[in-house]
Design a protein that fits this description.
By secondary structure, the chain is an alpha+beta fold. Helices cover 30% and strands 28% of the residues. It folds into two domains: 160 residues, Ribosomal Protein S5, domain 2, CATH 3.30.230; 104 residues, 2-Layer Sandwich (Alpha-Beta Plaits).
Length: 284
């Protein structure tokens, strides 16, 4: 690996289930959710500069200062400065393919990949736990991407227990609507009283507690779930809008994707217990 340049896949994630068990005084929700990664995502490119400037290729509709990639880079640079460490500048660009507001973690994955990549290029001075602590202020899902292993998450999503999830092939469909996570989590009709998982959580009944509300608010999501249900059990990931169904092999998944209505977008991907970001960095 060239010590001045690095390109990494920032993978999509799926919430295989998402239970909301309560709401905290600060407005955040207590969750129990199962994360796994996909071998599909955005690709980020990093090239060190001779000066201290951080540049990010423009993304349509997002100001640089609001972009989680840029914010992650600045946050890590500031942490290095607090430790008395100098950093070079960096040029960052992205090949974007994950939908915004799709529930597949695109922004969080991009932010985590930026933290991991720059920590590598700048000398690996922070541990994964330290990077995750920085990342949680950018988004509750950032730590799972930093740690890079399928996990059962509790709390607001930051309390992670690594697990092994059977790997399979997924058809993921985006019904071309953008869903605001804040709108879902502040809605008065959101279910917030699920019972906590038992010790043998694998045998419990699983669901996505956001799904009934999102289907009510966004009819295209309900239509997508119903369409997928013709081929396999379907579920929404995160707060949507992406929906998914699992298949035993790639060909079966591809056969379904080929039937996808043209008004929607979709892809086929294999689930992975280890994040391809970490595979790319050769991290354990």
């Amino acid at each position: 690996m060239n010590c001045d340049t690095l390109s990494l896949l920032a993978p999509a994630k799926l919430n295989l289930f998402l239970h909301i068990t309560g709401r905290r005084d600060d407005g955040y929700h207590e969750l129990e959710t199962l994360f796994t990664f996909l071998d599909y995502g955005d690709t980020l490119h990093f090239t060190l500069r001779d000066d201290a400037q951080i540049t990010l290729a423009q993304m349509d509709g997002i100001a640089k200062e609001d972009n989680l990639i840029y914010r992650a880079a600045i946050k890590l640079k500031e942490r290095y400065q607090e430790l008395g460490l100098t950093t070079s500048g960096v040029n960052i660009s992205i090949d974007k393919c994950l939908p915004m507001g799709g529930g597949v973690g695109g922004g969080s994955s991009d932010a985590a990949t930026t933290l991991l990549a720059l920590n590598t290029l700048w000398g690996q001075h922070l541990t994964a736990d330290e990077l995750a602590k920085l990342g949680v202020s950018l988004g509750a899902d950032v730590p799972i991407f930093v740690h890079g292993h399928s996990a059962l998450a509790r709390g607001i999503g930051e309390q992670l227990t690594p697990v092994e999830v059977p790997e399979c092939w997924y058809v993921v469909v985006h019904p071309q609507v953008h869903i605001s996570t804040a709108k879902v989590f502040t809605h008065p009709e959101l279910k917030r009283d699920s019972e906590k998982l038992p010790p043998k959580w694998q045998q419990a009944q699983h669901r996505n507690d956001c799904e009934p509300l999102v289907k009510k608010l966004y009819s295209e999501v309900e239509k997508t779930l119903q369409w997928l249900l013709k081929y396999a059990p379907s579920r929404m990931t995160g707060t949507g809008a992406c929906c998914f169904a699992a298949f035993d092999n790639e060909q079966a998944a591809q056969d379904v994707l080929e039937k996808l209505p043209s008004k929607w977008q979709g892809f086929v991907a294999k689930s992975l217990n280890k994040s391809p970001t970490h595979t790319g960095l050769d991290l354990v």
